[in-house]
What does this fold into?
Amino acid sequence: MPFAVMGLLLGIVGGLVLFTSRSWLRCLAAQGAAYLGVFLILLAQAVDAGDASELAAIRLVGGWMALAVLGATASQGTREAVEEDAGIVFRFLLFGLIFLVAWSLSEGTMEWIQGLGFEGALVGVTLLLSGLLRTGLVRGPMQVIISLLAGFSGFEMLFSAVDSSALMAAMLAASSLGLALAGAYLGTSSAPDAGEEPA
Amino acid sequence: MSAMLLWIALPALIGLTLIAIGARYPWIRFAGLAFAGGLALAGLLAPLENPFAIGPLRVMIRSETIVLGRSFFIGTGLARVIGASYGALTLWGFGAQALKTHRFFLPSGMIATAFLCAGLSVQPSQFAGIFVLLAVLVLIPLLVPPGAPASSGVLRFLAFQAIGVPFFVFAGTLLEGLESIPAGLSLTLRPGIFLGLSFIFLLAIFPFHGWIPGLTEEYDPFSTGFILVLLPGFIGVLGLQMVDRYAFLRGSEEFFTLVRTVGILSTSAGAALILVQRHAGRILGYAVLIETGMLLIAVGTGPAAGPELFFPLFAARSAGFLVWSGGLSGMRRRAISLRFEEMRGSLAAHPVVCTAVLVGTFSTAGFPLLAGFPARLRLTAALADIDPTAVLAIWLGMAAAAVAGARTITAMAAPPDPEAAGGGEASGPDDVSSARSQAPLRLFLAGGSLLLLVFGLFPGWIAWLAATMPAAFERLAR
It folds into this structure.
């Protein structure tokens, strides 16, 4: 299976699990899969264009490092459950709506941002929209931060076709890491939430 | 020596050192304050690209530094803006000492100021967005001290700022190389929309302002006040830089009308919402909304007048909020609740602290003889021929803030309720108990209140301070 299609599947499934899951561990794993999806799509684009793949690697490593920081904080007993403001069916339907919107926008996005490709546009817009929407649906520092990271990963996917400088990629990775550190700081400050479902 | 090293790298390093060593001893914190004061003096007075003598040393500050292929350029005008920022940091730092805020105040503030200065000086401009986000992240410990719980207000603050940054980065990248494109071309439409969205989020413009009253209600008003002066100030200057850089913005009458309209909306919304508040912290939050609206109206007056009106208005805002938030923080430290129902009798019991709150409120309301008045007078005079609706919105904002001040007096001066005695919000961990330990706070608040009066009586002082700053925008100044 080509890298880009694998990346598309990982990105969408990761976004879906993140958006609908109640488990803290599954949220982390889903976002990790989404980062891997973005990496594979960027890798496929780099291979097609005959470019080096270090930008894709920077994004993957930066994203996973951010998740590792959050994971380390969660493993020390400051996990938060996603407080369910809406039921899982509603979340599932909402993600379906986001996916449809992203699908309909992807062609226009591809025309506007040259070199993005269908997979990049679809995954980028889906992660961006689902991350932003999830930010408004969850409570607790680390859940908000992981939603922001999801939105950022979508943005990085779209932005990679606009700016291919290593410095910008490194600074965006540093921003993701900074967000994760802020989440860890706020997460350790807050009292741990009770009633989390087992992963 | 390079300007980047002096005003960005060095303060960031000193701030990190202060965090690392803990800054538990007062002399370390005062050394940090002295350093910030030195940076302020250097920014306001030192010539750039010209050698000058400091005692036996001959020094030359170079404007441009290249780091990893990116240019950090600090010209004379921007150096004055940066100097004023470090000056403000020094004043707020003294306030933090007097109020005995937690030890991260100065280091976090210094690192954040350094990041924001980096954002103003970096080329290409899209990197500025990343520096703004890094500054926001550094400011989090200032709001939420270690061990304190994080509320929804701080999460919304973080989320809204983080959402604004990608829009800015995207717009900055798309606009690269389009500096000379005139207004009206479709090429600039999408980047222009992204740029607008980024500033709506970053400046917390109505209706994306919800986190501001949340912060001012839930957290230490002094720390919150500092953030609400620092971030909008730098983002406002960043906005002016964008207007200065891009011809399609500075040459578009529609753009300035749009900015003015957003400002009118923000001021009017703030004016309406401030009237129904019954918490002194939330009143401060909605005053921020009114002030931000006024700043936007000032920018919307036009390319030449915008910066000349922006800086005096902003200087008055900084001074007013310093005293106002200091007073509110002092009240919390005396276990006085900021809810109107629970602050009865506080004026008689704590006259200095309460007077500072009132002077700060009325300065923001543009009361004559206080610091806020001359800047508002200039703004309304400049707008009289351009946009009478904007003048009306400014008057509305001033009147609403004055009414909020009057309601605060009424609540403070009401006879204390014997049943409610001993209640109120939780005081800070370092509650001031003895008269001796209250002296620095009283001195700071009384001095600050006096300063607002002096700035109101001698408006030329603020005008002098702000006069050199519009030079940072070469094309707008022409």
Observations:
- The first strand of chain B starts at residue 52 and ends at 54.
- The CA atoms of residues 17 and 451 of chain B lie 32 Å apart.
